[in-house]
Fold this sequence. Notes:
Residues 13-430 form the Amine oxidase domain. It is built from 13 helices and 20 strands.
Amino acid sequence: xxxxxxxxxxxxxxxxxxxxxxxxxxxxxxxxxxxxxxxxxxxxxxxxxxxxxxxxxxxxxxxxxxxxxxxxxxxxxxxxxxxxxxxxxxxxxxxxxxxxxxxxxxxxxxxxxxxxxxxxxxxxxxxxxxxxxxxxxxxxxxxxxxxxxxxxxxxxxxxxxxxxxxxxxxxxxxxxxxxxxxxxxxxxxxxxxxxxxxxxxxxxxxxxxxxxxxxxxxxxxxxxxxxxxxxxxxxxxxxxxxxxxxxxxxxxxxxxxxxxxxxxxxxxxxxxxxxxxxxxxxxxxxxxxxxxxxxxxxxxxxxxxxxxxxxxxxxxxxxxxxxxxxxxxxxxxxxxxxxxxxxxxxxxxxxxxxxxxxxxxxxxxxxxxxxxxxxxxxxxxxxxxxxxxxxxxxxxxxxxxxxxxxxxxxxxxxxxxxxxxxxxxxxxxxxxxxx
Length: 435
């Protein structure tokens, strides 16, 4: 059998998984990446403290505050987690009510005993709330498969609820729990309002959080795509300008023949190459990174949520800090000795000024931030595809002309698991179509 010539456009997580799956099946694969490194949206920059003559160990800044959910089925299938040197967050979150009022809400079945009393005394959830969530978790873990919620959403005639409708109208959880904890928690994950999030995706991620931990690699999130890229032929700084039936043309003018090509880039870039790719709205965010002398205001390895009640409105025209993390508390490799790293994620408008960000953070922590030094701001116009009510089954990877495939998290739910799974499905579709 003649060896198929496969080209993959995009060295993000989806493209790298696709290329590796094809290579495992003995096919010839080349990956073309427009930027200077692999990873796509999963990138990490090493940044020195401004003004230091001998900076020593740099700060590690992920491009947008990110965490790894270890229980994702495809993550466990594709990655050697031990090699990433993972260190985990405590399960749960710190709720910031403003003026330094912090309350911890954690999973008592998976947390350190010291968090149990703090959770019970937080005054966030009623006894009925706790019973409802425990029952939901037990049903998910013992009676359902990992993708059960997503599969249910594909049933013809099934009512597709937003996460907001599911929490308030189906589970009948208290508004206090939703507004103070669940809304900021999941709006921090997806950087979009609860009313625009799919309840199927909510149930899936809730199940994953119950099954395993959340963590950071010792070398930053980019260690994930770098592991996937090992042993692969990846051409960096090689943008593709055009796809035709029998080949593709690089921006340099070079022509590459193929038997199959996989478009594994974000939707805006994919649509330019293959107009048949359906439009996908995106969520946007900005992440502000600050260096601060140790210790940080919150020394627990846990995410801080903005649990102040919302004022002023919703939508892209409003800006709101949704969460603050101290990655260096989880992984000390993220900051030089004697320093810590703070990451504040903002949903909505990206044109906010540093003074506003500092004012909002000072209101949350109840203290001056004059010693915090701004390192870098990442404005992510395409943070992730916006959730639609129909996420399952994932889109067929074969599109347009014969031999042209597509993969990425815009093909199903916007998760790292979805990106990896989409890459694998594209590879399987190519193999299945082989003569």
